[in-house]
């Protein structure tokens, strides 16, 4: 949850910090005056006239505080309230300033534009453990995987990182944005390395459409940098909060057409090994390290920089087509797969029947974008999104309303965005008010395109049998990844991105583990795979069946990280047993 | 922060409920639902003897009430300002009395006369202006004035004394002439020169000066605009009311008839507005009865100020509504309707009952 959402109403009413919009000012004024009237009347009528005086500090305090915030919105200091002392003109000017004048469109002396976040949603720097410094609790965005680490280290340079690794022994875990959802960024008792300090652009070539960045940089930072040059990231995931290092380690994908896993846009990487040495890797140089590191869940070393491909930043227009699930494969093959105009594509499958789909495609256009900004503006809160998420998951017929009322209304618009805009979503739009009792989690399954229908049927049967509270199943397409050891697209696949809501108690977590294993079996039965950045529910057998080259990676790890320094849930779960049974095991 | 809109809706609803709730002192009590005046009193005179230029519409006796309320109200304020500072004056009660009484008088004429658009517009303009003025004053006095008000609301500062004088002068002025003719601007130097800057109750003095200065500035500006608007939209009002009486009084009067008729009746021009009812009372004292007032011979409204317990009982009149005088406990305003022909009897009845005639609404 964001700071502002946690703040009580008293922050708005009794502090002078920050800025508020005109509409907020009207609203809060209505609140203050009506509350004053109610309390005044009650005290006057039922207690005594004198008792009403206790209201005045509150009334005047809140009026001054909110007026201060509103003055800040137009870059005026709160002292301008003294204008009220000039008869007639002072109050008139203030009424205009407070109630009618539009706020500054950009950040000013007093803060950012109200409701617009200064930055993308970030995970914390680790919660301190009481009386046990420097230990900290490292958690991921789901708040389901708290891990106590021995210390947190934020390197400011690659040298600093190398030195730390050279001079220490013992387990190390690495985190960036920490948006993976199964403890891939922490390990108990390890030294946690927070890579977000290494966030610079090292090299950029507009002509070659190429950028070299430090691994702690976020995709949104790259977007801000390349947008000025009319360029766009070639492949990334939908949400721009992630760090490049994290995305590389899980070899993520997005909704891009004609692409696939992130590795297809990576020219080379640099990584620091367990002994502190720096290694270059690409398809031609140290290729085993290259293919073992990308999508390798930080087993071999710490990625410190990467050279990435860029593409032109085009305007794209949203189109959609509603169809039964059974028609999707043919529709996709005939109209989307080889369509050079299609830039983004995904197919949303509607729970709880999973038989209807909405295929959404963003196509190249020369029309003028319908949005004012080139990059997606950030918002401080997403009340509407949050309400819909709640309604879809918690109310009777919520899912029906989404399919038949809400989505049709939302899709009435015909937005035209920039490619960069459409790749700039903020994870914050998914954040619920609280994750303590219930949380939203992702899972993902990859299925060869020809088995789309078989897997869909199995999946929907499992979801319905376990009454899984699925919000959405988003289908994306990926071309094969020919190299990486933990390739999830060994051939052309459809990715099923499952977004669901679960309770956080142990029974609920256990239930999720059970149906997850069934779903993995369903994917394996058609020669598919499941995605690894989520909860490590899969058995060792399932893992090796889905990732047949894992043993090669394990052997490479044994070689490059002989003391098993790089830990996290993934390696603890699947590599540890492998070590104890021996390399041939 | 979704809580704020929800809380705001709740508080606004609660506040509206408290503002409009019943059960407190009724500020206007109508004599009955809808029209209580006998229908045969609500007719225009088909064959007036009065010359056309002196005839005014019959329904205006009712419609002038809200306008006159805006004289009665400043009068009450002026009386109050001598005793206590106006900080605690119940402005909002007067706003309610204004609109409630407008509703009651309109109920009496609705259906019996054609809709008098021009007059209604005028009532709305002055009604809304007064509502805004009183609401702002109530708000200001509650939030600021109350905090600087001397103990028991005593009129101790020069500024509060200035206010008492100004309120009195203002009401004396508007009894005779339109409010917008009042010279607010001339009061500003009087305020600034006539009061010291420092002195005991410094904060009160400063705050009152600020408040009075604002009031004078706004009213002189607004008055200027209304004056232009009124001149453009309405004809210059006559300052006399023509009456036809049954006979000339025995005792020679300063009033000379415009015209006498063969049956002994006579047409007189009486002063309009405030001075109308003393003139009428003087004629009644001499045993005169009225045949026409401003060309009308049917219903005519008058208000009297009477003790709370007083109930009018007479065949010649009909009670329309009562309003308590909120700053003078025990006293109420009683609106009565009679006919032009029975006006003399009604006035005599009021005099016998020892109740004060506040005003006779001469159309």
Q: Can you describe what's shown?
A:
The complex is a heterodimer of chains A (585) and B (363). With 585 residues, chain A is α+β, with helices and mostly antiparallel strands. Chain A has a domain at 3-100. In chain A, 35% of the residues lie in helices and 21% in strands. Chain A contains 18 helices and 20 strands. Chain A has helices at residues 3-6, 9-14, 22-46, 55-73, 89-100, 158-167, 219-227, 244-250, 287-293, 325-336, 383-394, 398-410, 419-422, 452-465, 506-525, 540-546, 550-560, 569-581; strands at residues 127-128, 136-138, 147-149, 151-153, 172-175, 191-194, 201-205, 210-214, 231-233, 266-273, 278-282, 301-312, 315-324, 342-349, 356-365, 416-418, 438-448, 469-478, 493-503, 529-530. Chain A has an eight-stranded antiparallel beta sheet. In chain A, strands 7, 8, 9, 10, 11 and 12 form a six-stranded antiparallel beta sheet that branches. In chain A, strand 14 (342-349) and strand 15 form a beta hairpin. In chain A, helix 11 packs antiparallel against helix 12 (398-410). In chain A, 42% of the residues are buried. With 363 residues, chain B is an alpha+beta fold. Helices cover 48% and strands 14% of the residues of chain B. Chain B is built from nine helices and nine strands. Chain B has helices at residues 3-20, 60-83, 91-109, 117-148, 158-174, 184-194, 202-233, 276-285, 343-352; strands spanning 29-30, 240-245, 259-260, 266-271, 290-293, 299-307, 317-324, 331-339, 356-361. Chain B has a five-stranded antiparallel beta sheet, sandwiched between helices. In chain B, strands 3-4-2-5 form a four-stranded antiparallel beta sheet. In chain B, helix 2 runs antiparallel to helix 3 and helix 2 runs parallel beside helix 4 (117-148). Chain B is globular, with a radius of gyration of 23 Å. Chain A binds chain B through residues 4-5, 7, 9, 12, 24, 27-28, 30-31, 33-35, 37-38, 40-42, 56, 59-60, 85, 87-88, 91, 381, 383, and chain B through 1-5, 7-8, 11-12, 14-15, 18-19, 142-143, 147, 210, 213-214, 217-218.
